[in-house]
Design a protein that fits this description.
The complex is a heterodimer of chains A (376) and B (73). Helices cover 53% and strands 11% of the residues of chain A. Chain A is an alpha+beta fold. In chain A, strand 1 and strand 2 form a beta hairpin. Chain A starts with a helix and ends with a helix. The mean pLDDT of chain A is 92. Chain B is built from three helices and no strands. In chain B, helix 1 packs antiparallel against helix 2. The longest helix of chain B is centred in the N-terminal third of the chain and has 24 residues. The interface between A and B is large, with 42 and 45 residues.
Chain lengths: 376, 73
């Protein structure tokens, strides 16, 4: 590598890092408690006990559940219905209109066997941290902005790896030059931690960026695949009389043996067309439970229109979620996630320190530091 | 010391990167044994880092092992 090439990569590394570091530090710091979101929630607000019923008590029809939910939130229409992973609980999200803002939505859990409402969900400190982590409490465009910061972070990682080569040309892996200047010590630590966290930070960074694009990616799916299903039949207008949701679930379930329902999206919401119940089925192994299979039932007539796998970009988007959260491999993985997160904070912090405490002079000085590492 | 080849520079980082990727994948495939394997594979880069981080300085110029330990804390 010529000195000119190294300088170019140095400048890429410097500017991509400088722009994204403050946001990445915020993301890493808020992300740390979020790794243990589930555990902290259970500790702060233990789940309410369920009524003791004989094992094997059958669940109520979803139509009954929805009627109970409607009675508790008058004036609202159902938007989403989802199933608890572990316990016989059905969650119903309702709102005044299908395009209601999340703040206007009403969320409740009901015992699937009795239809009794669970104690109301109280939004706690972890929800606040999650909101901060997602969009800094500033809404959709702030989320997209953080997605772009994730891309800059990835560019900083790539340019950092390129600079690692000339830097380590005369140093053995893991060399920390102690007893020299403090700056040199941190330069070495920055390089060591940067290169060992490389794959983890890239995966979590890129999947985080993908997560910020859920709405636009889903919109592409709606305007392609979903539009096709929508156009496949003539539609009678949706009146107040709707087809049975339980029958819709049963119809989809017959087409997807060995799978269980994860959630149902009602007509007009992000995950459905204007005219369908979209029933999302999930597999029962850790991998297939992430890849959803949707079935579409006409909400006016109850006819099953299609059960089709989602296109690759939707599958990729769904797979990006566990890879970002680190919640798919038990407690050991969460601890590993936390340690990687802390190391990334040190990489970001030491990078900032190296820039603030740079010796005067043009950036050629820093390029020299890279080239001359290990000499003298 | 002479210039090292890219293979020598990136040897250990590539091995640690492969361990990380296999760990991320193993966790997705299954529970139980797969999760344990994922934890161990993902821990590999962390263990290697801890070892180098705590290792006494090996800088040939200064800070040899004996010198380091005579420095009062």
């Amino acid at each position: 590598m010529t000195r000119g090439t190294i300088k170019a990569w140095y400048l890429v590394h410097k500017w991509t890092s400088l722009i994204c570091t403050a946001f990445l530090l915020m993301l890493c710091v808020t992300g740390l408690p979020l790794i243990f979101h589930h555990e902290i929630d259970e500790w702060l607000d233990p789940p309410a006990p369920l009524a003791a019923l004989p094992a094997g008590t059958p669940p109520l029809s979803l139509d009954t559940i929805l009627a109970r939910a409607a009675a508790r939130a008058p004036g609202n229409i159902p938007l989403y219905l989802s199933f608890d992973d572990e316990r016989p609980i059905v969650y119903v999200t309702s709102g005044p209109t299908p395009d209601a803002a999340p703040a206007q939505m009403h969320f409740m859990g009901l015992d699937a066997r009795t239809g009794e409402a669970m104690p109301p969900y109280v939004s706690g400190v972890m929800d606040f941290i999650l909101k901060l982590h997602t969009d800094m409490l500033l809404g959709f465009w702030a989320e997209i902005f953080l997605g772009f910061m994730g891309l800059l972070f990835f560019a900083a990682i790539v340019s950092g790896v390129v600079l690692y080569a000339p830097f380590m040309a005369k140093l053995d892996f893991g060399t920390l030059r102690r007893g020299r200047s403090k700056r040199l010590g941190w330069l070495d630590r920055h390089n060591l931690l940067g290169i060992v966290t490389l794959v983890w930070a890239s995966v979590v960074g890129v999947t985080g960026t993908i997560n910020t694009f859920v709405v636009p990616i889903t919109a592409i799916w709606k305007s392609n695949g979903l539009a096709e299903i929508m156009a496949s039949e003539t539609r009678t207008p949706l009146g107040t009389q709707r087809a049975s949701v339980q029958a819709a679930l049963d119809a989809v379930q017959r087409k997807a043996p060995g799978m269980k329902p994860q959630f149902i999206a009602f007509p007009g919401v992000v995950f459905s067309s204007k005219h369908h119940y979209a029933v999302f089925m999930q597999g029962t192994t850790p991998l297939t439970s992430k890849l959803l299979l949707p079935g579409f039932v006409d909400a006016a007539t109850g006819r099953l229109d299609a059960v089709t796998p989602m296109p690759w970009y939707m599958q990729a988007m769904l797979l990006a979620q566990p890879l970002h959260f680190g919640d798919y491999g038990g407690l050991a993985m969460k601890i590993v996630w936390a340690l990687f997160d802390i190391l990334t904070i040190i990489v970001l912090g030491s990078g900032l320190y190296l820039w603030i405490c740079r010796r005067g002079g043009p950036s050629d000085q820093r390029v020299r530091e890279v080239v001359m590492a290990g000499e003298t | 010391m002479s210039h090292k080849t890219n293979r020598r520079i990136f040897g250990v980082p590539i091995l640690l990167g492969i361990a990380t990727m296999l760990g991320l994948g193993a966790g997705l495939i299954g529970d139980g044994g797969w999760d344990t394997a994922a934890g161990l594979l993902l821990a590999a880069p962390l263990v290697v880092t801890a070892w180098y981080w705590r290792r006494p300085s090996v800088s040939p110029a200064r800070g040899s092992r004996s010198q380091r330990f005579t420095i009062p804390a």
